Structure formats: C-alpha cells, structure tokens
Amino acid sequence: MNTIKILLEIGRRLLVIALLTLLTQVGGLIYLLYIPLSLQLNKRIQPRFKRFMAKLGSFLTVYLLFSFLIIPTLASKISNRVPLPLFDHHVKPLHYGYVLLNRHYVKPQLKQIVLNVGERMDKAFPESIIAYMDAGFPFWNGYPLLPHLSHDDGEKIDIAFFFKDKEGKEINRKTPTFLGYGSGFEPQKGERDRPAECAKQGAWQYNWMHNNLPRFPWRDYELDKARSKKMIQLFARNKAIEKILIEPHMEQRLGMTQYGKLRMVGCKAVRHDDHIHVQL
Description:
Layout: H1 2-24, H2 27-44, H3 48-79, E1 82-83, E2 91-93, H4 97-100, E3 105-106, H5 108-124, E4 130-132, E5 156-160, E6 163-164, E7 170-171, H6 194-200, H7 208-212, E8 222-223, H8 225-236, E9 243-245, H9 248-253, E10 262-263, E11 275-279
Parallel strand pairs: 2-4, 9-10
Antiparallel strand pairs: 1-3, 5-11, 6-7, 6-8, 9-11
C-alpha cells in the first residue's frame, strides 16, 4: 500500500512538473526546487485543508520570487531576452496572466520597437495603450510556446486590436474574450473569407477559438479602425520588422492592402482577425 501511495505521489508531481513546463517553461524547474519545502510542510502541518493552503501559498511565493527577481536577469544574460513592461504608460499586457506565465519575453530590439510605437500611438490618440498577448518564453530558441507554431525565439509578439464600445468610446486593454484570442470579426461581403477557405481544408483549429471561446455579453465591442490601422502602420514602417500576420479580410477592411509586410497565415495556424502577429 505504501508503495502504491509513493508511486501515485511521484506520478502526481511529474504531472504538475509537465503542466507547469508546458505553460510557463520555467514553472516545472521552480517546482522541483520547491519540493523540499513541500515535504517539510507535509510533516509539520496535519490538517489537510490547512496543509493544502500552506503549500499553495508557499509555492506561489517561490514562483513569483523567481519570476520577477531572478528569471529576468538570467534571461537577459543567457538568451538576450527581456520582459515586456507591466506598468508602462503606453504598453501593458492585455491581462497579467501572460506575465504570470512568463510568456512576455522578447529580444531587446523588439521591446524597444513596441515601446516606440506605444509612444507614437499616445501622441496620435492620447491615452491609447498597446495591449500585448503572447510573446515568448525567457529561454532557449526552438522551445515551443504552445499552442503557437512559432513564438520560439523572442522575435515575435501578438498584439490585440483596439476596440470601442457601441457609443464610440475608445477602450484600452479590453476585448470581447478573456484571452483576447477569439475576439475577431467575420468577413464581410467583398472581403476574402480565409476562415471559410481553411474550414474547407479541414483545418478545424483555425476557427476553434473564434467559435468556442466565450465572449463577455457586456463587451459587445466594435473594431476601432482608426487606432488599429495607425498601430499597424507604425509597425509596418519600421525597417526592423520583417512581417505582420493578419487576416486578409481585416487587411481589406482597414484599407492596408498596399503594405507588403502584411501577410496572411497558413491554415495550420489560427485566425488573426483579433490581433496582429509582429516579428523581426
């Protein structure tokens, strides 16, 4: 019986390590370093719920200390990657989950470009804030940032479109879905229907987030064409930016078909009518 309990405990910990590694890259390693503390808490705290809360709180404390105090320095020295800002006036995460999962690392050059675009957006549209989503993990080129097909070298970043409410009021860092992904718009008459093309090819994942992620019913937002177009123009005019991925119908709707850096994604990816993918 003791052997079975030990094996189950080992299996549980391995599962936790695997999930944390997939989601955050560094979480699995942090958990390994945390295990000795966890074992001590098992011995010292007997009530099950109290022990669970103590272990959860202690792990989160260790995880946050590593994430905000140690990993940024190591990432800069080892991989030449830096975290995107949390509290900048012009650039912030869409929500802080992307930061807590350590998915907000990029090369210094890309960070500076994003900050510059944020400053110029504020001059054109005061108080506008660029909202970033997934960028990259802190270490190792080629390490996948699931579920993305790329985002593995610190040279890519996803940025949400700008939205406004039904009264036309400009909105910052809010999208119809919690993740930002899945907040896109259907092609209109006369626009290329890339989602339908990919669906015909059997690419189920292409439309999955758009069709399945729940939308906040109180966030019936409209696309802010003026701000979204200006932001894309600023990125496209930067010589260091190689390409920007966007749905063809959004490119047409914003009147940006003349920009050669704007490309559509393959059907193996997901829809890009709720954000743009910017890369060096």
